[in-house]
Amino acid sequence: MKKDGHVHSPYCPHGSKDSFEEYIQKAVSLGFEEITFTEHAPLPKGFIDTTPTKDSAMDMDQLESYFDDLDRLKTKYEGRIKINIGLEVDYIEGYEEEIRNFLNVIGERLDDSILSVHFLKFNNRYDCIDYSPEEFEKIAKRYGGVDEVYKKYFGTLMRSITSDLGPFKPKRIGHITLIRKFHHKFPATHEFKNDVENVLNTIKKYNYEIDYNGAGTSKPLCREPYPPDWAAEKAMQLGILLVYGSDAHHRKELGQGREIMKFLQTGLTQE
Asked: What positions does the domain PHP occupy (predicted)?
């Protein structure tokens, strides 16, 4: 496991202000040979961030500076560590055309990216499902229960995989069980294994990768990777590429979770 394929940056408005070089030097010290910066892409044109702090993604006017900074660092660290320019792109139901147009404009600048679901649409309202346990509780009440939120999440995740977002659509699907971030406080009535397996089968059909994400291991109400062991094992059986991602929003979070992520330790992972 020599690559971290999901790392944030000082351009993240809800992260730390650790510099790119602090992230890079930490990655080198951990023995990584490759790192992908996947900052939260600007939200689709016309979409209004519904989080209380409205800090889910970088502004559009920061994007060129983000690319320029990473272009310079790719040259500076050449031969020491491979640096990929990437984005974590939000799939938002109803904004497929705007996302596709955005990717068509900037796609040639990207080396490697992730497509993730954070926002769900319900009765013409959008909710961010991983903002906080308090917000998740409010969402569950509006939906009529935790199970209903899970059903909507996996339905939206399927839409993200099958939607035509153009030739620059990311080929790696982000933290496919993010909905379980608060499951120790707000458990569903079952594990939604059929839904997860349907997602994995569809990812296989489209020949996409999954983000094998360690961030959940450090969340006190989650304490497991995204996806958990049984789903990671199923992905391996299907021949889906697992790409480790720390989802670091601070340099100290690089490498998080890898010590308990089974398929990184057994040598079964394909990265």
From this structure: 4-213
Ranges of each domain in the chain: 3-265
- Separation CA 3–CA 81 (nearest Å): 10
Render pLDDT for 7-54 as a digit per residue (tens, 0 to 9): 999 999 999 999 999 999 999 999 999 999 999 999 999 999 999 999
pTM: 0.95
Q: For residue 267, what pLDDT band results from cuts at 50, 70 and 90?
A: very low
What is 3-265's CATH number, 3.40.50.1370, 3.90.226.10, 3.20.20.140, 3.40.190.10?
3.20.20.140
